[in-house]
Amino acid sequence: MTSPTPIRVVLADDERMVRTALRAILSAEPDLEVVGEAATGAEALSVVRDVRPDVVLMDVRMPEIDGIRATEQILATLDEPPRIVVVTTFENDSYVYDALRAGAAGFLLKRADADALVQAVRLVARSDSLLFPAAVRTLAAEHARAHPAPPAWVAKLTEREGEVLRHMARGLTNAEIARRMGVGPATVKSHVAAVLAKTGTRDRTQAVIAAYEARFLNGG
Amino acid sequence: MTSPTPIRVVLADDERMVRTALRAILSAEPDLEVVGEAATGAEALSVVRDVRPDVVLMDVRMPEIDGIRATEQILATLDEPPRIVVVTTFENDSYVYDALRAGAAGFLLKRADADALVQAVRLVARSDSLLFPAAVRTLAAEHARAHPAPPAWVAKLTEREGEVLRHMARGLTNAEIARRMGVGPATVKSHVAAVLAKTGTRDRTQAVIAAYEARFLNGG
DNA sequence: CGGCGTCTCCCCCGTTCGGCGGAGGCGGAT
DNA sequence: ATCCGCCTCCGCCGAACGGGGGAGACGCCG
């Protein structure tokens, strides 16, 4: 059942102890072979280019180039790139998203036990026919589309104008906004006019549209 | 390295041949044991309740109760539920999302080779410390928020009313909408009134808000 | 001190909007 | 043949809206 040629693995982590531990775990398996190590993202790039491994265990936090960027560059520059498993200590969500978007084949926590580690390596080496393959990428892409950079006018709104826009985006009239904010209707009119000017819109409807497009509303 | 007690697996698929094939593959591994089979979602539920497996390979399409619902119910009703791997022929995105949302531990294509299959079973049995665990759930949750069920009023809008609402949501006035649609302003007024009535809103701004909240606009 | 931005409020004016009721034509369903 | 839904349009009215211009108060900063 064991394949004739072992799975060639490169370890990229700035801490020597981590590399040593990983090497010890992987070397105990006859079908796995650690063929290189790197302590920085840049080093990882050149090592991978030289030894052409099947799998890379890539730490996120590393000097010079972090693991995410190293992953991107490896996948972008090599013809038949290795499968890359991003390794980190904490399951920071944005790391996971970044790793997915960068094209990593998997995401592994350092607290994972030895058995999970070796099975992860075998798994990613075997291709992505398993466990949320391509679809996970589309999820990550969707996540990226869901968090675009906000337009410039958002920062230019004063606090009061922002409040008014929020109320406008809830469908309130000027009079209602005035009541809720404890000011006169004329004041609200002024704020609305300022909002229209800064958003480059001509009426409250267009302003609300702009607010939605800019994802100006936090809840919703 | 092999654990003393084998991993207990239940197969749920309405096609006998698939079950036989899976059983053949899994039985060849000393650390895996097929302890039950089910041909329907309902059957899967009772079998799992009886034999208490570690892992369930669950087909999506099944009579009576589909695999997704069966997964939901198993996870909801059992105290220490098994890890469930959803199996299907095509990598339909919505299936993947549904599986994730239902709480499945993995997603497997039927075209996956035997080795990938057994490693998948071993992997999910070993817990989710690996390959996009909890974070994948949050992604799925985000996807669910991004694609909620549209409100009832969407279906009740006539074609013309829908067009008008789209134009309203682009910030056009009644007169502009009338020009673009090649009708009189009075006609647009009628359509707008109908839209307001059916959406339960009192002015165009609130209607546009409703359109955005309902994701009535396809692009954007 | 003197500008500057912000928040507050005022008046006037024309436009737009939304609510009301009505009407005719057209096509599908019963 | 009749009803019903949809699309098309009409007039009238009050309310809300947006533009214009202005003004006083406050605080910040150079």
TrEMBL record, chains A, B:
Residues 150-215 form the HTH luxR-type domain. Keywords: DNA-binding, Phosphoprotein, Transcription, Transcription regulation. Residues 8-125 form the Response regulatory domain. InterPro entries: CheY-like_superfamily (IPR011006), NreC/VraR/RcsB-like_REC (IPR058245), Sig_transdc_resp-reg_receiver (IPR001789), Tscrpt_reg_LuxR_C (IPR000792), WalR-like (IPR039420). It comes from Streptomyces olindensis. The lineage of its organism: Bacteria, Bacillati, Actinomycetota, Actinomycetes, Kitasatosporales. This is Response regulator transcription factor. The modification 4-aspartylphosphate is found at residue 59. The keyword Transcription regulation applies. It comes from the Bacteria. The keyword Disulfide bond does not apply. Pfam families: GerE, Response_reg.
